[in-house]
Amino acid sequence: MATIIVSSCLLGCSCRYKGDSCENEAIRALAKDHVLIGVCPEQMGGLPTPRNPSEIVGEKVVSNAGVDVTAEYTRGAEAALMLAQLNHADFAILKAKSPSCGKGLIYDGTFTGGKVEGNGVTVSLFQKHGIPVYTEDELDRLPL
Asked: What single-letter DSSP state applies at residue 97?
């Protein structure tokens, strides 16, 4: 039985920036045999739902209204890491392309839908601390 950190939006929580979810039944089905711990780093960092969309611009996370939300993203990533460490998480499944949870490919900071290589704030912190991260697009690679 694995302990898995999962983006709450993938579990059906309406916590995305526009107040919806992106529930993934295949991920929810993992709860039958594994422990799933939902996290929304953006909410955990103090941002409201709904909220303005944000993207990584250089070293900062900035909303489409031009507000620097780097501190909130960092605080949320640190809170998610603490939960992962306290629960001895084996790995995480986080939301693809998100400025918090995206892995390998994230939105490019222009708010035009373009994407660039990179990781979200939470993914970077998890990887720095040795926690493997997958997205909902990599379920066939899970170490189960």
From this structure: B
18 residue type, one letter: K
The answer to whether the beta carbons of residues 80 and 44 sit under 8 Å apart is yes
Tokens 């780093």: give the residue: 41
Contact between 108 and 116 under an 8 Å Cβ cutoff? The reply is yes
Tokens of 93: 């499944």
List all residues 6 or more positions away from 78 whose beta carbon is below 8 Å from its beta carbon: 125
Instruction: Check if the beta carbon of residue 139 is closer than 8 Å to that of residue 26.
Output: yes
C-alpha to C-alpha distances, 104 to 9, 112, 134, nearest whole angstrom: 19, 18, 10
Predicted model pTM: 0.97
Strand ranges across the sheet with 91-94: 35-39, 3-7, 91-94, 133-135
Looking at residue 45, what DSSP letter applies?
T
Which contacts (CB < 8 Å, 24+ apart) does range 57-61 have?
57/109, 58/109, 61/99, 61/121
pLDDT 10s digits, 88-143: 999 999 999 999 999 999 999 999 999 999 999 999 999 999 999 999 999 999 99
